[in-house]
Amino acid sequence: MNFFYLFLTLAIGSIFGLTAAKMKIPGGFMVGAIIGVAALNIFFGTTYVPKHTKLFVQIIAGAFIGCIMEKSDLKRIPKIVQPTIIMLLGFLVLNLSAGLLIHLVSPLDLLTSLMSVVPGGISDTPIIAAAMGADAPKVAVMQMVRQILGIGVFPALILAYDNRKKTDQKDSEREANTEKRKKSKTKSWQSFVCTLIIAAIAGILGTMTSIPSASFAFPIIAVLILKLVFDFAYIPRWAKKCAQVLSGCYLGSIIVLHDVLELRYLLIPLIIILLSYMANCLFTSMIIRKTCGFTRKESMLITTPAGASDMALISADMGVENTDVIIMQVLRAVIVMTFFPQIINVVVHIIGK
């Protein structure tokens, strides 16, 4: 019977995930799977996802993030250390302050509040949140809103703000100075299998430690080493999409009617997230622009809460092709998902749940 329920759950999750992706919804494979499987669980109670699914998804997601960095990016890192530090400090202050504020003004526990504001992946963060003991469905909702803001709202606001400020000649010259980002050409099934094995070993070792989210952080680090040292790491996009569907199926399977009714309490937290990210985009980008020589649009795109791959498309559409912007977004994805959960865990233990 469990096999039939598993098949049904995966089938519904895949159908809804594919539909959401076709509708161009950010993180559509995961979001659609959550909606479909949650509806199945709420109305019929016939969902089933093995408990080890979380670990598998974490391994795939961690391996995918580890593959993002390219060897060519390493040459640029010394030149972007300062703006990267400013960006990360801005996101950390935002994460902790907005998370604490959400905890104070809403019924959400401290861990859930802090994980809801993490500027990480829309499909990765809820899984990490679930592994740490947070309310993963609520984290998923607020992460989805953040991603939508980052992709659909912030670029339009940045363009409007930048046009109003009349970008000066220096900015125009800076935007014209672009550099192509060289990508690895190692995309074979052998490198895919090798990457999976390395990530799996690292993930399993991570579960044996007492480090929060180590089963996710260890695969990132291991695959990053495999990629940068041996240039033999590769995770195809279809594997990432499958992991997103599995992630959505898992998260949807733990949603019950009570969780849906409690969504009405998320309005204030969502407003806090919106205002906090707008403030961070404005003030942190101003610091980066004044101290690091980036243009206004580049600085604001650096602090935009979207995914690294999304930013590559968004920045190009906005006339910004500076590879440093993309590299910094890649660094954000790797560093945030590797270290922010550890920092949050320390904060939760100090303040208390």
- From the spread of the alpha carbons, the general shape counts as globular
The chain-level mean pLDDT equals 80
Order of helices and strands: HHHHHHHHHHHHHHHHH
Question: What is the terminal separation in angstroms?
Answer: 38 Å
Largest sheet: none
Structural category is mainly alpha
Poorly predicted parts: 175-179
As a whole number of angstroms, the C-alpha radius of gyration is: 20 Å
Secondary structure tally: strands: 0
Number of helices: 17
Beta-strand residue percentage: under 5%
Q: In percent, how helical is the residue content?
A: over 70%
Task: Write up this protein.
With 353 residues, the protein is an all-alpha fold. 75% of the residues lie in helices and 0% in strands. It is built from 17 helices and no strands. Helix 14 (267-292) packs across helix 15 and helix 15 packs across helix 17 (323-351).
Task: Note the main attributes of this structure.
353 residues, 17 helices, 75% helix, mainly alpha
Task: Describe the structure concisely.
The protein has 353 residues and is mainly alpha-helical. It has 17 helices and no strands.
